[in-house]
Design goal:
By secondary structure, this protein is α/β, with parallel strands linked by helices. Helix 2 (about 30-45) packs across helix 3 (about 100-120) and helix 4 (about 135-145) crosses helix 5. A hairpin with an 8-residue loop joins strand 1 and strand 2. The protein is built from seven helices and six strands. The protein has a six-stranded mixed sheet with strand order 2-1-3-6-4-5.
Length: about 210
């Protein structure tokens, strides 16, 4: 698959051949759903549990006589109705640490990239170098690319410092290095922007 390489300045940077094994995979909704669900569950921290009646360290001695005290017949102070007692039906500890086969994760990323490529929502840039690292000028340059409401920009190993500074105030731009490319962020964006270096890194990631 050949794609025209765009430039932040005037003109274009020729063409680039995209690997069909990475950008030409037929998307499957079930695979993408599994990977996104796995990814979002991995973000969740461990749910903290409350101490219930059996977990509270209080005396188990019967503190009052059975009859004649004018109170309920309690056996210990760990009951939930007492201050310092255990929580009744409290939250339990839950660890959200699902597993997903590496091959399924890799296939999901290929399908996410292919979805953008086949849907005309993929733009390849020569690089992200700016002559002037200013938000106003960058916004004008990006306006010519018709990125839509939300765009994900992926660079190579290291992010362009000037582009990162200039785009930090643009809420419609998300910036990631190639190693951070993931299914959820790719699918959430209206447009996927890859630099030439990012394309090389992503293709090498699957061929390695």
């Amino acid at each position: 698959m050949k794609v025209q390489v765009q430039s932040l300045g005037e003109g274009q940077g020729g063409e680039i051949e995209l690997n069909d094994a990475v950008f030409g995979v037929e998307p499957r909704a079930d695979i993408l759903h599994r990977v996104v669900t796995w990814q979002l569950e991995k973000r969740r921290g461990t749910a903290r549990g409350a101490r219930e009646r059996s977990d509270v360290a209080r005396t188990g001695k019967k503190f009052g006589r059975q009859k004649g005290g004018g109170t309920a017949r309690h056996g210990d102070r760990r009951a939930p109705i007492f201050v310092g007692g255990g929580k009744a039906h409290g939250p339990r500890v839950r660890d959200f640490n699902p597993s997903l086969n590496k091959k399924v994760r890799a296939l999901g990323l290929k399908m996410a990239l292919s979805t953008k490529a086949q849907g005309g929502q993929l733009i390849v840039m020569e690089n992200l170098d700016l002559t002037e690292a200013k938000t106003k000028s960058l916004k004008e340059q990006l306006g010519r690319l018709n990125l839509g409401r939300k765009a994900l920009v992926i660079d190579g190993d290291a992010l362009s410092v000037g582009f990162a500074m200039a785009s930090s105030n643009l809420r419609e731009i998300d910036l990631l290095p190639a190693v951070g490319a993931n299914v959820y962020d790719i699918l959430k964006a209206d447009t996927l922007v890859l630099t030439r270096a990012a394309v090389e890194k992503l293709e090498a990631r699957f061929n390695g």
